[in-house]
Amino acid sequence: MDARLWLRENGYSDVADMIDEIMADWAARGVNTRRNWWDKLSGDAKGRPCRIGAWTLPVLRAAQVRQGKPVSKKALCRNRAEIPPPVEKQARWLR
């Protein structure tokens, strides 16, 4: 499942809008960069937020759970019942 779709369906529209803004900025500058947004939203190894240019992405509890990282105390969780989508395995030839 696309991260932005999951974010919108689970009450994180503001975060999805931030990602859209980042991607629009890249497109305007002719940058063709692809990110694993789940990885970015899970923070770094110590649970600190990731920065992309001028934007600081929030650390989401669901993203940390999905990525198999320990959940940090300051991780954002708007719904304790939210279920992060599973990690989809890519076929070897797609890597």
Give an overview in words.
The protein has 95 residues and is mostly helical. It contains 4 helices and 2 strands; from the N terminus they run αααββα. The chain has one domain. It has helices spanning 3-9, 13-28, 37-41, 61-67, and strands at residues 51-52, 55-56. Strands 1-2 form a two-stranded antiparallel sheet. It is globular and about 40 Å long.
Feature tags:
95 residues; mainly alpha; two-stranded antiparallel sheet
Please give the number of β-strands. 2
Strand content: under 5%
Taken from the alpha-carbon principal axes, the silhouette is: globular
Head-to-tail CA distance between termini: 18 Å
Question: Oligomeric state of the chains?
Answer: single chain
- The structure class reads mainly alpha
Count, helices = 4
Note poorly predicted spans: none
Radius of gyration: 14 Å
Largest sheet: 2 strands, antiparallel
Elements, N to C (H/E) = HHHEEH
Mean pLDDT: 89
The neighbouring-strand order within the major sheet is: 1-2
Number of domains: 1
Q: What percentage of residues falls in helices of 4 or more residues?
A: 25-40%
